[in-house]
Amino acid sequence: MERIILFDGVCNLCNSSVQFILKRDPNSTFKFASLQGETGQALLKKYGLNTDSNSFVFIENEKIHLKSTAALRVCRKLTGAWRLLAALLIIPGFIRDPFYGIIAKNRYRWFGKKDSCMLPKPEWKNRFLD
């Protein structure tokens, strides 16, 4: 089963989220690619998404999940109590996504931005597709 997370590689919040996921994914369920990288851009094109996308994208078995649905579907596969957040999927996306949108819109202002994408720790390097 293929599970790929596309994330904003220059966003501090997004990079912290990737590290959070890596620490709670002992079975190496997820692979990662930055939205800005070649692999991320190719995947966006493959699935008909805007290459300027700044949304969290989760690809699971050739199916695309965006925004809050993507984040909650990832939570479902994490260790610990984090998987309980997936219960929020019962709330329709049109209700959840505005909250996601507020965070996404303000993420650089609230959490900062890097000049370049993060470099993964050596033990995580094989999990990154770029």
Automatic annotation (TrEMBL):
Pfam families: DCC1-like (PF04134). GO terms for molecular function: protein-disulfide reductase activity. It comes from the Bacteria. This is Thiol-disulfide oxidoreductase DCC family protein. It comes from Neobacillus novalis. The lineage of its organism: Bacteria, Bacillati, Bacillota, Bacilli, Bacillales.
